[in-house]
Amino acid sequence: MTIGNEDLINAATEARRNAYNRYSKYSVGAALVDNYGHLHVGCNVENAAYPLGSCAEAGAIGAMVQQGGKRIVKIAVVGGSSEIGPCTPCGGCRQRIREFADDETLILAIDDSGEWQEFSIRELLPASFHLD
Ligand code: THU
Question: How many CB atoms lie within 10 A of CB 99?
Fold first, then answer.
């Protein structure tokens, strides 16, 4: 079964509910489909030692790698609100996504309005650093 955009967004929204956002109160969920068509999710996990907190995308990418996924076909990031705007991936997460993305990889950023924005990794991280 193919995972459509709506399914992916629902999975990210579900993951967002588990965000451990004790310090920022900002919750983020991420869901991705890998090259095998498998779904992986993550949420942000904060820490009293602030820099140790991790982003939702990092969790989803870590789950993908641990389960044998190689490439990101598409990834949805759910966060923010219609007032402040959707959560587009932070700089560090753009680089994390870049590691497993191609030109065709679809990156969706969604807030609570249900409207989503679509990006490529080239748009989010032009002239990126990579080794291949
Ligand atoms: N956050 C993410 O999970 N992903 C992003 O791309 C941006 C920021 C999290 C980190 C922190 O827990 C909270 O959002 C506020 O920065």
Answer: 16
